[in-house]
Backbone:
């Protein structure tokens, strides 16, 4: 029997279900705008990255809609330099990568929206998330959410989002690896670890968007990393907007995440624009990696 997202959400807290459902509706509007709001804006984000028109539009669109919902107290967004206060009586605090992988838009490759949901005020450790989710704008728009009831994936159809798989567990032992940064900048112990994976038959899959590359690990198992680099010891991905939500999902489905020495979810944040090296996927692969890096 086909189960819609709305029916599936009946199994969790009502207000959280309402926020996840709202986000699913907003994501469809973002998806329908992808063909139109193209090109570079004349601004850069706090990370010094040139923003695209769609980056800025999606960010402001989601923030405006969160404000109207009265559910959201504050937002930490990859596209905003500071915490954005919305409703003093809001229940949830939300982290946001409105359009992850936006440099893929020009080439029509995978992009998506990544969201972390907290009750605790931000900034705080990722382990305080009560849910996390992403919407992937691919050949099919898919939505994955993780909450206390597990990790579940939905396909967008003419009947809205319908359940594809619930209580997802990361496939063992995993088949893929995807690594960001230039190979010449990988640190020697890490490069040796990757050479070992290649000898064990792991296949390279790297699409330039964390949301798409993580989704491959969710489906096929393996490991994704945007590692510490000789040129970028702190890595590239953002702790709040990218690493924490995906680490919450990974750990909920029996996988693991690390910055090289501890779970991403345990990292005590120093700033809302903090970057972090991230290694995420099958628990065995992550634990083996930590041993080689320590
Ligand atoms: P954009 O959103 O600027 O395209 O960056 C995407 C991202 O933050 C993350 O989604 C990717 O894993 C990573 O950057 C890709 O970085 P490289 O372009 O260095 O491969």
Residues:
């Amino acid at each position: 029997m086909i189960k819609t997202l709305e029916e599936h959400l009946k199994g969790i807290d009502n207000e959280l279900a309402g926020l996840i459902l709202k986000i699913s509706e907003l994501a469809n509007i973002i998806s329908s705008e992808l063909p139109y709001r193209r090109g570079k804006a004349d601004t850069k984000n706090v990370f010094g990255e040139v923003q695209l028109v769609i980056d800025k539009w999606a960010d402001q669109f989601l923030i405006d809609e969160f404000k109207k919902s009265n559910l959201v107290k504050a937002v930490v967004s990859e596209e905003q330099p500071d915490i954005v206060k919305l409703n003093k009586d809001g229940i949830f605090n939300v982290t946001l990568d409105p359009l992850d992988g936006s440099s893929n838009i020009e080439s029509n490759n995978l992009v998506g929206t990544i969201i972390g949901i907290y009750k605790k005020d931000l900034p705080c450790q990722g382990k305080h998330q009560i849910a996390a989710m992403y919407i992937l704008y691919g050949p099919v728009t898919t939505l994955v959410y993780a909450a206390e009831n597990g990790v579940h994936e939905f396909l967008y159809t003419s009947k809205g989002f319908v359940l594809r798989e619930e209580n997802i567990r990361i496939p063992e032992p995993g088949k893929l690896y995807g690594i960001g940064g230039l190979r010449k900048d990988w640190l020697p112990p890490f490069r040796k670890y990757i050479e070992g994976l290649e000898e064990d038959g792991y296949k390279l899959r790297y699409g330039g968007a964390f949301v798409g590359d993580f989704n491959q690990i969710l489906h096929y198992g393996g490991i994704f990393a945007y590692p510490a680099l000789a040129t970028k010891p702190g890595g590239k991905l953002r702790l709040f907007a990218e690493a924490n939500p995906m680490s919450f999902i990974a750990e909920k489905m029996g996988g693991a995440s690390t910055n090289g020495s501890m779970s991403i979810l345990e990292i005590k944040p120093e700033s809302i624009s903090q970057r972090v090296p991230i290694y995420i996927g099958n628990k065995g692969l992550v634990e083996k990696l930590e041993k080689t890096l320590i």
